[in-house]
Amino acid sequence: MAGLARSVAAAILLLSTTTFGFAANKVIIILDASGSMWAQIDGKPKLEIARESLRTVLQSVPADDEIGFMAYGHRQKGSCEDIELIVPPQAGSASAISAAADSMKFLGKTPLTAAVKQAAEALKYTEDKATVVLITDGLETCGGDPCALGKELKETGVDFTADVVGFGLTADEGKQIACLAENTGGKYIQASDEKALQQALVETVAAPAPAPEPAPAPAPDPAPEPAKPEFNFTPSVVMAEGGDPITDGNAWEIYKAAADGTRGDQVMTEYGALKTNLEPGDYIVVGRDDEARSDQKIKIEAGKTYNPLFTLNGGTLVIHPHASQGSEISGEARVDFAYPGGSTTHYGDAKATVPAGEQKITVQIGAGTVTETVQLAAGQTVEKDVVVGVGHAVLNAYYTAGGDKADNSGIGFEIVKAKKKIDGSRESVEHSYGPDSKFWLPPDDYVALTTLDLAVVEQPFSIKAGDNQDVKVALDAGVLAMSAPGAYSIEVFSSKKDIEGKRKSLGLSYGDSWQQTIPAGDYVVVRHASDQGQDKEMPVTIKAGERTEITVQ
């Protein structure tokens, strides 16, 4: 895992010093902050790898480089408008970008086309040279057309380039966004594993441009050469021995072979059927379809043609996740495939091509999880419905039973198990904020711990598989609006004193005005002045479902 993080960091560092990078240009880095960044590589979430890599690399960027930072999907779950230029392009922005990446959430959609468009406009791409670097682990989910955008930006820009890093994408997914980079003259880099990322960057950005050579002296016309084949390397790939050749959705990676027989510089990445010419030499060729792959060492000699066959020894899993028996396929499900030698994560109706053998499939919907094991033979396709067995609950709070809904984004719901542990505590299951909070829960008895300002209420409820419940929580509270002109702070106390003559403090706010939701009852509001001995207090009674306004002078 540490190796992958170092590879990503090295990759981005190369970006800061080569044609893919930032030197002498204004650049905006766009980071995919969608919910899929929670997916793991070798047990570590992608978002953590991206954060650590950015922090490491940005420390090495020259102080006068003007770098900006944009993100999408970091504030709202279902919005295609959640795009923000967090750090405008400026010199010395490394610490601001690292802090922004460290503090953001990862939970939304993937409006990558609109984000690249906004970044180009922020860089005034129609007036100046501009570069956008997009790091994404998913495809466009908001209806944008990245290919068409690439053409538009290239045609209307002065000198615009978009470079795209596909972080953990499959070969088929990579084809769908590579055109954004290619249509602007930029590079697409498939970062599907550590070595692929490393070698792709070495080939595309590390090699210095050759110095121009002087024009050669005129030479006599060469003697005609014998006709050569159009291509000297035309490999084919099958899923299993004796199967039909795969020509769509697959990928080819070709590397120079190093002296020790390992992968050296990457020569090319191609998709579908491959016909090409390779210079004489030793190569390592990788044929792959999604997660299934096959490697071969190939020695190319002048004047010969090669047609090697690659057998992936893989199969295809199609998983249809359901919340409960008889329900529709769930688009909110997370599907984890653990196959021999690795793992991959998909969402919703999931399809994965993986190495043959024992497959461990884990489907998660909300707080519900189920794991099944499937034996997959080479060349086989297994289609399976997986029922998680959860119910659905939508939670809302009301100031009084049957009264006004608490339509406040600050309201919090924590779902805990109703049964207490031996120490009296309860197991926390899930939490959410705002009205209409949605939860998928396994069958059980629960308690909704609902908090709005100073009001805290426990609401028990039960869920069965297939349930679709509206859980209404009565806060039995009102709203207290407090004004204390010239006050240093305002504090709310219970009205009843304890045996020592002290009141319990329920909350304090600095400033001369404060509004809180508070349980119905009697209280004392204290106006604190900056000078000692100048405090004032006023008793107040709060009624459930009503607003009370007071001024303490």
UniProtKB/TrEMBL annotation:
Residue ranges annotated for the VWFA domain, each copy included: 26-205
Region called Disordered, residue ranges: 208-230
The record's InterPro entries line, in alphabetical order, gives: VWF_A, vWFA_dom_sf
Q: Which SUPFAM superfamilies match?
A: vWA-like
Instruction: Locate the compositionally biased regions of type Pro residues.
Output: 209-226
Can you say what this protein is called? VWA domain-containing protein
Q: Which organism is it from?
A: Mesorhizobium dulcispinae
